[in-house]
Design a protein that fits this description.
The protein has 11 helices and 11 strands. By secondary structure, it is of the alpha/beta class. Helix 8 links the parallel strand 7 and strand 8.
Length: 294
């Protein structure tokens, strides 16, 4: 069993398809198929259930994927350790919610890039569940996660506190009018969505229609057009409120403030680029957070 075979197996398991895995890896499909069959022959077990809609891991495949993620993660970390010995360089993969990426991170990432231009910094956006999974699978070096945080395999630096507001079109003056409107949210796994749905349930509001959107811009556009309401950080909607096309309504005190932390795997090798980023984060964390202020 070679590391290259494990990478092919990991790609197929992640994509659920030989075709998609081949495209991702830049291989021909026959090569991917042959390597999966050879791996199954070497291990003397079937790794995938094959059907018309794709491929699904067997119990043995699921077990192998856990080890493959760890092994390939260690190999990637070893490469990072070698390249981190001199001038900071190499990949640094960070995750964030769209709201945090839009308002909180631009100044931080710009400052980091100015200081360490040889680091290949990449930013992936997603919801809390997606980002957590990315860290656990060694796909992300770390991520900014919002909401209560407690995970045995992860460590965190508290970064800043967001004030949450219910946001509507400018013409909605009273929140009592809001229950008749849909709520505009990101897909499941988003902490802000969970907080809003929990609050609506606790206050016995009739369950409104839920509309899922893929981008922050789409949610803000829908809200400003009167399509519905949403729950977002005040920093995200401040410009729209100031310019008169959004209105911010105070969220109840007990649920108004949400902490955001930078999170990483406890057992991961901390490459030099990641350590330098964490040093910047520690110095920038609120209350001394001029770097993050809108």
């Amino acid at each position: 069993m070679e590391s290259g075979d494990l990478r092919v197996f990991q790609a197929v398991a992640t994509e659920g398809s030989i075709t998609k895995a081949a495209n991702r890896l830049g291989y021909v499909q026959s090569n991917v198929t042959a390597r999966i069959r050879q791996l199954e022959a070497d291990l003397q077990t079937v790794l995938f259930h094959r059907h018309n809609r794709g491929m699904v891991l067997t119990a043995g495949g699921k077990s192998l994927l856990e080890y493959a993620n760890q092994i390939l993660g260690l190999l990637d970390e070893a490469a990072k350790a070698v390249t981190s010995a001199h001038e900071p360089r190499g990949p640094l993969s960070i995750g964030s919610s769209q709201t945090c990426a839009a308002v909180r991170l631009p100044k931080l990432l710009a400052r980091y890039h100015r200081q360490y231009p040889e680091v290949a910094l990449s930013l992936t956006t997603g919801n809390s569940d997606e980002l957590t999974e990315g860290i656990l699978r060694y796909e992300l070096d770390g991520a900014f996660l919002s909401g209560p945080f407690d995970h045995d395999e992860l460590a965190a630096i508290p970064m800043f506190e967001e004030e949450m507001v219910l946001v509507s079109e400018a013409g909605l003056e009273e929140l009592e009018e809001a229950p008749a409107k849909p709520i505009l949210v990101f897909a499941g796994g988003c902490y802000y969505r969970s907080a809003l749905e929990s609050w609506l349930k606790q206050n016995s509001w009739k369950s409104p229609q839920t509309m899922e959107f893929g981008t922050l811009e789409a949610i803000l556009g829908g809200v400003s057009a009167g399509l519905g309401i949403s729950l977002l950080p005040r920093t995200v909607v401040a410009k729209g409120v100031e310019e008169g096309y959004l209105r911010a309504h105070e969220f109840p005190e007990e649920a108004r403030y949400v902490d955001t932390s930078f999170v990483w795997r406890k057992d991961a090798f901390l490459s030099r680029p990641l350590r330098l980023l964490m040093e910047q984060l520690a110095s920038a964390a609120e209350p001394a957070a001029d770097l993050f202020r809108a």
